[in-house]
Amino acid sequence: MTYHQTIDERFFSPEPSQRRMAHELYSRVKSLPLICPHGHVDPQMLAASTYDWGTPVDLLLIPDHYIFRMLYSHGIPMEDLGIRRKDGAPIEQDHRKIWQTLCDHWYLFRGTPSSIWLRDELRDIFGIEEKMTSANAQTIYDAIDAQLHDPQFQPRQLFARFNIEILATTDAATSTLDAHQRIRAMDQLLRVVPTFRPDAIINTQGAQFVENIHLLSDVSGVTVTDYASYITAIEQRRQFFKTMGATATDHAAPTAYTGRLSEREADAILQRALRGDVSSEDATRFTGHMLIEMARMSTEDGLVMQLHIGSYRNHNDLIMERFGPDMGADIPQASEFTRNLKPLLDLFGNNRELTIILFMLDETNNSRELAPLVGHYPALRLGPPWWFFDSWQGIRRYFDNVMETAGVYNTAGFNDDTRAYPSIPARHDLWRRASADWLAEQVLRGFIDEEDAHEMITDMSYKLAKRTYKLETQA
């Protein structure tokens, strides 16, 4: 017996009553505008008068670590996928051949989020209904390539087609935000805002830390020579980002450790870092201190603080050596929040004007620590499943593990957190379907009534993200 599911029913429970109710709830939100408060889309593409997407491989494979890490795990060299090496060694240049390799191995992605996102992109954006196979690889390549040269496929046209209401990029603290300035000058109605990302000027063991501090001095107009001038320069940059529409900051750290240093201690570590003589212990203590400082600054300037915790970066030394960072070798690790965040929360956790959104890569923490923390402290909210867990099952586990203790309204709604621009609608659609299916089950089990479910689906799909990131006043 073959089960045929309509496009509008996909992913919903096979149980008829739940499927009908999920479909009804989903129908209320499927056409709502997309709120994209955190992601990594390059603003340069939206600032360009004419943007060159390159080939289908440039668009869909080379930038997507979800895809090339899977292929690499089956022994396909990254050079064969067109991934550029640090040493300039030869790589495959024939993108048709690379696409054929992808399609020959597409079976590897069965049941993964990548297969869902790309399938939905091909159907909804490119109008391609066929499954990717070895046999039709070149036909699909040609169909995608033709549309990449269509004027209607330019990034700003897609912005309207995707029904994006607002999109936040993630930008280095030292960025001049020139692309954002060009976007503003070009189209006042295109709501694209920056997000302040200071990791490169806080991680004292970063490869370019000293260079980045010099750049901070240049762009801020504050010569950084000590801790006091360092703080002044950061505060200046935050204010500049705010003038460009920023409502949030973004911070990544291996652990959630926070701890207060005296100004003298902080200055001593900074001076050692500027001499290139900083220890791992120094780096941990300085990052923990600066997370507290960033929370303090957010109480003053109102920027929402995002904290992404738990990635062991660049785990594969060989890949790091050959290709550099962010090449699919980042691995989740166990994290602890209750004790690590206490110094920060003792100072600012009870501040109702502060918003700190926590993101994790350790699912075991959801019910044990994170839901209880955000269910108590007024300053905390919990971000949606991130990275390895922004999947149907990851989202459902999140709902089941978090909502009873934290409540829906202590979560931050959804953000797509992607640099793959064409995948944005598919990611939001998956979240909306998962939310509808989960709420339908809650109604049928008697936990909530239909009236509540109708309001909650709109909040989870649209309003919560807008409210949490303070975007309601940005229209």
Number of helices: 20
Classified by CATH, the class of the largest domain is Alpha Beta
- Main sheet: strands, sense, barrel: 4 strands, parallel
Distance between the termini: 52 Å
Would you kindly provide a written description of the structure presented here, covering whatever features stand out?
The protein is α/β, with parallel strands linked by helices and 475 residues long. The chain has 2 domains: 7-53 and 151-468, Alpha-Beta Barrel (TIM Barrel), CATH 3.20.20; 54-150, uronate isomerase, domain 2, chain A (Orthogonal Bundle), CATH 1.10.2020.10. It has helices at residues 16-29, 43-47, 56-60, 65-73, 95-104, 113-124, 137-148, 155-161, 178-186, 199-202, 209-220, 227-243, 263-274, 280-301, 317-323, 342-348, 365-374, 392-406, 424-444, 450-468; strands spanning 34-36, 164-168, 171-172, 192-193, 196-197, 248-253, 304-309, 311-312, 331-332, 356-359, 380-382. The radius of gyration is 23 Å and the shape is globular. The chain starts with 15 loop residues before the first helix and ends in a 7-residue tail after the last helix.
Descriptive terms for the model:
20 helices; 2 domains; uronate isomerase, domain 2, chain A; single chain; three-stranded parallel beta sheet; 11 strands; about 475 residues; TIM Barrel; alpha/beta; four-stranded parallel beta sheet
